[in-house]
Amino acid sequence: MNSLHLRATLGSRGIDLELDVLEGETVAVLGPNGAGKSTLLQLISGVVAPDAGIVRLGEDVLTDTASNTIVPIHARGVATLAQEALLFPHMDARTNVAFAPRSTGANRATARAVADTWLGAVGASHLADRRPAQLSGGQAQRIAIARALAADPRLLLLDEPLAALDVDTAPGIRRVLRTVLRESGRTALIVTHDLLDVVALADSVAVIDGGRVVERGSVTEVLTAPRSEFGARIAGVNLISGRAVDAENSTSLTTNWGVTVHGSGRHTTGTSVVAVFSPAAVSVHLTAPHASPRNVFEVVIEEMEVQGSGIRVRSRPQPDGSPGMAADITPAAVSDLGLEPGRSVFFVVKSREVALHPALPSAARSDGYRRS
């Protein structure tokens, strides 16, 4: 079995992580810069040892501080694919790929056959005799993917593998990764900041913030009903945290700075909940409307940016430091209202457009995520 279980702390980096990955599952690892995403991969690959914890791949223990077990990097059955291809410059593409099975004891003929198989799988057979200096960025990354898979890893770690590619090359490499991950049934983690990687490659999502897993769920769950600030940011929705209160026979949310948000979804009074709603559901007014049922928020505009064919208007951060709310409106509306950064306005959203969900705990969930 190639399922993954990790529980690790690393005081120097503020890390307290717990993560479970099913065999054959691809998990997208999301989070802000410095959250601990790369450290997670380093703990799994063995580049970094935790202060305390365990890393288990299937039934095999790779790291266990309690028993002082540290399996060497080369013996873990883990392959890492990074932003840069990092091919050996003095070897042609076939020899680069063949290096992986050769390093595990395969003879030359077998290694070449494995290399040719994987070069074919990534659409790079015609590049077999070229050296890295003769390859484009996208071609080199195809060879790097083939080399990683030629090692027959039990677990594949992808650290922003498309970040260094241009917009014309990335879609092709994304398709290659999708095909090989699906067809090989390989367990994989992909660290990314690109929403396209999430929807195209991943089965589920783990959001890391402050050195902890703060959200874990299927791609659909996280993108349609995020329960962490970063999850909401990448999903492109608004999120407000607070506690459930009973108001007029329906559940509402009250923030710690005294704002009440009305929405759908009943929850026990006093429990932590989050309100989620789309920027497209928000209208902008210069004066507060009094029609019901609506949520009316007095805000100060911080920035405006082009979003598709419209304008996204974002308010200053919330009093608790969480990101400001966003509203998507037309350029004509921006002009008619005379909107600009620093202006006070009212964001208005109908109650039926707001969904209330239970908030996830700030620390890692002990049960991990399980697909049904």
Automatic annotation (TrEMBL):
Keyword Cell cycle: no
A single GO molecular function term of this UniProt record: ATP binding
Domain ABC transporter: 1-235
Keyword terms: ATP-binding, Molybdenum, Nucleotide-binding, Transport
Signal peptide extent: none
Domain Mop: 290-358
Pfam families: ABC_tran, TOBE
InterPro entries (alphabetical): AAA+_ATPase, ABC_SmlMolc_Importer, ABC_transporter-like_ATP-bd, ABC_transporter-like_CS, Mo/tungstate-bd_C_term_dom, Mop_domain, P-loop_NTPase, Transp-assoc_OB_typ1
The name this protein goes by in its record: ATP-binding cassette domain-containing protein
Naturally occurring in which organism (per UniProt): Rhodococcus navarretei
Taxonomic classification: Bacteria, Bacillati, Actinomycetota, Actinomycetes, Mycobacteriales
